[in-house]
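Example 341, ligand adenosine-5'-triphosphate.
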Amino acid sequence: MGLFDLFREDIAIDLGTANTLIIHNDKVVVDAPSIVARDRTTGKIIAVGQQARQMHGKTHENIKTIRPLKDGVIADFEASEAMIREMIKSIPSLKKRLIPPALRMVICIPSGITEVEKRAVRDSAQHAGAREVYLIHEPMAAAIGTGVDVQEPKGNMIIDIGGGTTEIAVLALGGIVADKSIKVAGDVFTNDISYYMRTQHNLYVGERTAEEIKIQIGSALDDLENGPEDMAVQGRDLLTGKPKQIMVTYKEIAKALDKSIMRIEDAIMEALSMTPPELAADIYNSGIYMAGGGSMLRGLDKRVSMKTDLPVYVAEDPLRAVVRGTGIALKNIGKFNFLMS
Ligand SMILES: Nc1ncnc2c1ncn2[C@@H]1O[C@H](COP(=O)(O)OP(=O)(O)OP(=O)(O)O)[C@@H](O)[C@H]1O
């Protein structure tokens, strides 16, 4: 270990549209919503993560809550930099250091990202204190985090359904052979539910409520073996303006999400059709891996399996697969040639 190593700390970041996760010393030390609250008058950041999320949708005119990332990429540079900085500051094991450490970071980025968007991630990290920044494509990180050996001469298909993007990639020999990225993922599902509530029930629900509905009773199939119980949903009646409650079934949510899921299915079919035949044969044998929070939607694995006639495996703890993979990449910086410095 060199002298420099004593002052260096390594962290892996999954900078997501919905959630940001950080691994330090093999442990997930940050797992928080990607939200920042800013005071409009002073311009100061007053809260990030969970605390900012609690304010989301409930702010008065002096406070603004911002989601710094949109569709997997940085939409508000200043807010994302502040968010990264505050989240790093909150890591208990780093707080103890008398001298601020030189940070080496591995950050994952969507595969369809432009050079300008890549630059924004790198700059945000550097402004937040990183000395060395390495980037890794999200599907690669998701595959590693799911336990796939990405270096072997064998094709593997991974689908990462996050908040802003669904990334579908065929990986072999440490590289991405075919990929398709679409902006249909968890956030669109949430919007579909809000739209359904407004148009079918005249009920205006906020983003948080729509997301709760998705998590509690969301489904990709309208016929589940053990379907969830109906859910009581409160919001504002669009006709009378009064607060109101209605009961919602999972079958209704399956209907609300159907079109968006069809777009994901189409993207998967397109990625499969771009796959070279030898790798297609491998995928036929090994099936498809799914990760990301969106993959937790009830029945989605079954629906993709029915569409592709392939077995589908959902990662253990899908919300953490990407950061787990990023953490493994961090430990193997010298070994993994697909890490971009
Ligand atoms: N049980 C669940 N069922 C359905 N969706 C879920 C569930 N739990 C979380 N989600 C959704 O998963 C999404 C977040 O997933 P994830 O943290 O993997 O995304 P992200 O990495 O922040 O986004 P991106 O990769 O697009 O930048 C959110 O839209 C959230 O509502």
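Summary: The mean pLDDT is 92.
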